[in-house]
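name: query_chain
kind: protein
chains: 1
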Amino acid sequence: MTQSAKKLAPEPIGVKTLRTDHLQPNPFNPRMLFDKAPMRTLEESIKRVGILVPLTVYQRQADHQFIILDGQRRWICAQNLEIVSVPVNQVAEPSIVQNIVTMFQIHKLREDWELMPTALKVDLLMSELQERSDRKLAELTGLDVAVISRCKKLLSYSKEYQDLMLDPDPGKRVKADFFIELYPVLHDRAITTISAYSRAQLTRKLLEKYQDPAGGIKAVTDFRKVKQHIGNARKAGKLLVLVRRFKEFVERIELTPDHLLIPEADVSAQARSLHVRIQRLNELLAEFDVDDYLGEEELWKALESLLGTIRKRLRDAGRRVKE
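structure:
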C-alpha cells in the first residue's frame, strides 16, 4: 500500500460475529457485477469449510447500520446458504474517499473487477478529490496508470453505453474492450469532421455492426485496422477518399475494415516503412569495421546479393545506376 493510501485507511476496531441479515452492501463498492459461475464456486467452498476470512465492516453513524467494506461475495453466499451469522473485522467509518481507496487497495491483488464499475468509482474519486492526474490516481488506488487511462476513456461514453457494460447478464454485457478499442477511431480528427454522425450515433452504428453475426466487425481489434487505414490515408493525402469509404463502411453492415484500404495510401505506408529500414541498414553498414568481418563469407555473399537486387530495382524504376 502506498503512503497516500495508508493515510486514508480506516482505523481498526476489532473482530466479532454479526448476524448476516444485519449487514448491508457498500454503496461505494467498485465491484458491481457478480457473475454466477465464480459465485457458485465460492459458495461450494463456504458450504464445505465455512467463511475462513472475516468480512471487513464499518458501522454507519447516520443509521447505525453495518456496511460491508470487504467481503460482499462471501456475504451473498452466506445468505444463499442461510448462514445466520458471519465473522467480521470492524473498522471505523471511513469517508467516501477512504471507502473507495480502501476497497481498491483490498482488492488490487485479487481477480480484476470489470472495468466499467471501476471507472465509476474512479470518477467519484476524481470528483471528491478534484484530482485528474493519472499518476496520482494510480498511486491512491493501486491501479496501473494504464488502467486509470482506460477508465477515463470509458467515462467519456454516455450512460446508455455505460449501462451496456454493467448488464448483470454476462451474455448480454458488452465488454469494455469494445469501447476502449473504438475510442481512438471516434476521436480521430478525420472522423470527427464527418457531419453526418454524432459520436453517439457512430457508436451505436458500429456496435450494431459488431453485434450482428453478419456484421463486418468480427473482433474489437478490428478498430486498430480502421485506425491504421485512417492514418495511412492521412499521410498519403487521401482523407477525402477515406471519409467517403468510411461512411459506406458504417452504413453497410457487411463491409469489413478492408473496405477502408486505399491502395495508394497502403503503398505509401509500405514505402515509408521500407525507407526507415533501408536507412537503418545503411547506418549499420556504414558503422561496422570491415576488417572485423573479413572472414564472414556468408555476410559478404549476402551483401553482394543485396547489391544486385538494388541495382535491378533501380534500373526497373528507370533510375541511373552509378558503377
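note: Residues 175-264 form one domain.
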